[in-house]
């Protein structure tokens, strides 16, 4: 199953522009947060570690991709959101808090939806 998922991701990345890659990162981040929540519920330490590491890595990549010259206040707000998300994710892992993860997921989903709507307006 993982091989199929990886093949799908490879295909999506190859056909994506910058906007599409960020959308893919948002989607993968939401999946990683959900997987972290499920692994907490199942008390699966290995899965929790893998999914939370993936989520933290994606947050780092999203933060690193910000263009503060072009993005101005929006880029600053996103940097703050990504920092808050990283801190909340670390606390959620320490506390086994699915509630914190749900808060992160809601915030990221809102941004992902807004990002998707930009593409819809441009096309």
Task: Give an overview of the whole structure.
By secondary structure, the protein is an all-alpha fold. 89% of the residues lie in helices and 0% in strands. The chain is elongated. It starts with a helix and ends with a helix.
Radius of gyration: 15 Å
Question: How would you characterize the largest beta sheet?
Answer: none
Helices, by number, come to: 5
**CATH fourth-tier homologous superfamily:** Flagellar protein FliS
Helical fraction equals: over 70%
Mean pLDDT figure: 88
Number of domains: 1
Cα distance spanning the termini:
33 Å
Count of β-strands: 0
Q: What is the strand content? A: under 5%
The CATH topology annotation reads as Four Helix Bundle (Hemerythrin (Met), subunit A)
Concise synopsis of the structure shown:
The chain has 123 residues and is an all-alpha fold. It has five helices and no strands.
Search tags:
Four Helix Bundle (Hemerythrin (Met), subunit A), 5 helices, 0% strand, single chain, mainly alpha
Topology:
Blueprint: H1 2-14, H2 18-41, H3 45-64, H4 68-95, H5 98-122
């Amino acid at each position: 199953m993982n091989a199929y998922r990886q093949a799908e991701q490879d295909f999506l990345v190859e056909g994506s522009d910058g906007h599409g890659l960020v959308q893919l990162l948002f989607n993968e981040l939401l999946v990683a947060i959900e997987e972290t929540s499920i692994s907490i519920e199942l008390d699966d330490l290995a899965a929790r570690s893998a999914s939370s590491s993936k989520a933290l890595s994606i947050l780092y990549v999203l933060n690193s991709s910000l263009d503060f010259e072009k993005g101005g206040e929006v880029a600053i707000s996103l940097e703050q959101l990504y920092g808050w998300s990283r801190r909340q994710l670390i606390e959620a892992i320490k506390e086994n808090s699915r509630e914190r993860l749900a808060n992160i997921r809601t915030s990221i989903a809102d941004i992902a939806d807004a990002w998707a709507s930009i593409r819809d307006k441009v096309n």
